């Protein structure tokens, strides 16, 4: 199946401004004091415009795709955990026993996990999980490119094709999640590349590293940025030099969702770093994204600010997997409910 091409750099139109205006008008007319619904009202207007209808329809089909892969840097002292955890967690998602699995079950979110670059062959794991594998462990970005140019293209295309599959199957809202020990290192590098910042400002504690490991991680991120040099000015080159198969695929998925006009709820650092990169590839894509939560990673906050997104939740989460996005789902459903089901003030008053 050929599918659509990878993002071409063409601008993405935003959700319909006329629908947004009609949704805002309905919000203003609800039987509540003006502005009393706060950000719930803003989210309702955004979702209504993204759906192209007022009021918005209930969210009954929400889908999370978890992009899994290993990272060469994980063998260079940047994480608190060993790379073998990645494959073990993929099996745990399949078994429905991960942190995000519990949240997704609670909130009726469908979960799909995809191996783009896990180091293990994942024998015994269902074939559809492995069907889009691009390579084993992506390159250690401080020493070599994460991907070849061909692998970058294949990963972007794989992510786009997965978005197409989920949208064609009926997804009303897409979420992106991640699994890959060491992945906060390339994600921080992606944010630094997009924002022109030094490693010391973007590097966080990931799984909970100590000061010595953090210093080492800053060195690795800075060496990767120095190695990439001016290539970081171009988003596809940035992905080749500094990302991984899983992060490039998540970027393709997010860009394609925006191009198809399907709203997205973002998660933590990896999700938001890929959203920032998707918005570089497909300018305007960010208008289709809402931020599920603020993670503890500094690069995630920096990227959200650049994208102009205010997170729904701020719970101190630093899990990834899509957990912060899934935790925010009830808030989005609440936003739909108020704009749909609250009476209009004009209808309560005796007509004169
Ligand atoms: C058991 C376990 C489950 C996880 N689920 C998500 N992550 C998260 O932590 C990792 C990123 O942090 P760092 O860059 O410091 O390695 C990723 O796998 C991310 O998905 C996990 C990490 C662990 C250990
Ligand atoms: O921001 C995240 O999602 C995150 C932070 C630390 C570790 N894993 C994920």
TrEMBL record:
CDD domains: DMB-PRT_CobT. GO terms for molecular function: nicotinate-nucleotide-dimethylbenzimidazole phosphoribosyltransferase activity. NCBIfam families: cobT_DBIPRT, PRK00105.1. Its EC number is 2.4.2.21. It holds the Pfam family DBI_PRT. The active site is at 321 (proton acceptor). It catalyses: 5,6-dimethylbenzimidazole + nicotinate beta-D-ribonucleotide = alpha-ribazole 5'-phosphate + nicotinate + H(+). InterPro entries: Nict_dMeBzImd_PRibTrfase, Nict_dMeBzImd_PRibTrfase_bact, Nict_dMeBzImd_PRibTrfase_N, Nict_dMeBzImd_PRibTrfase_sf. Pathway: Nucleoside biosynthesis; alpha-ribazole biosynthesis; alpha-ribazole from 5,6-dimethylbenzimidazole: step 1/2. The lineage of its organism: Bacteria, Bacillati, Actinomycetota, Actinomycetes, Propionibacteriales. Belongs to the CobT family. It comes from Nocardioides bizhenqiangii. Catalyzes the synthesis of alpha-ribazole-5'-phosphate from nicotinate mononucleotide (NAMN) and 5,6-dimethylbenzimidazole (DMB). The keyword Membrane does not apply. This is Nicotinate-nucleotide--dimethylbenzimidazole phosphoribosyltransferase. The keyword Transmembrane does not apply.
């Amino acid at each position: 199946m050929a599918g659509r091409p990878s993002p071409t750099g063409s601008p993405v139109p935003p959700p319909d401004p006329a629908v947004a205006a009609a949704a805002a008008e309905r919000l203003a007319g609800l039987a509540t004091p003006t502005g009393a619904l706060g950000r719930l009202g803003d989210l309702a207007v955004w979702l209504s415009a993204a759906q192209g209808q007022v009021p918005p329809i209930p969210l009954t089909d929400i889908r999370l795709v978890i992009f899994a892969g290993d990272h060469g840097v994980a063998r260079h002292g940047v994480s608190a955990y060993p790379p073998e955890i990645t494959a073990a967690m993929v099996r745990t998602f399949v078994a429905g026993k991960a942190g995000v699995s519990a949240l997704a079950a609670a909130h009726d979110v469908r979960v799909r996990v995809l191996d783009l670059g896990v180091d293990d062959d994942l024998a015994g794991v269902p074939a559809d999980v492995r069907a889009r594998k691009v390579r084993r462990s992506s390159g250690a970005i401080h020493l070599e490119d994460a991907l070849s140019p061909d692998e970058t293209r294949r990963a972007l295309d794989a992510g786009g094709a997965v978005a197409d599959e989920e949208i064609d199957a009926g997804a009303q809202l897409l979420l992106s999640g991640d699994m890959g020990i060491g992945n906060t290192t390339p994600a921080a590098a992606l944010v630094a590349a997009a924002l022109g910042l030094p490693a010391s400002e973007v590097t966080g504690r990931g799984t909970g590293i100590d000061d010595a490991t953090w210093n080492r991680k800053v060195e690795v991120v800075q060496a990767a940025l120095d190695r990439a040099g001016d290539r970081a000015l171009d988003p596809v080159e940035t992905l080749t030099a500094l990302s991984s198969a899983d992060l490039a695929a998540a970027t393709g998925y997010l860009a394609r969702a925006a191009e198809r006009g399907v709203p997205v709820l973002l998660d933590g650092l990896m999700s938001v770093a890929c959203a920032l990169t998707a918005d570089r590839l497909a300018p305007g894509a960010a208008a289709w994204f809402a931020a599920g939560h603020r993670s503890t990673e500094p690069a995630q906050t920096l990227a959200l600010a650049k994208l102009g997104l205010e997170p729904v939740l701020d719970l101190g989460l630093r899990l990834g997997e899509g957990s912060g996005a899934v935790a925010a789902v009830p808030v989005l459903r609440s936003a739909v409910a108020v704009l749909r089901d609250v009476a209009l003030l004009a209808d309560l008053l005796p007509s004169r």
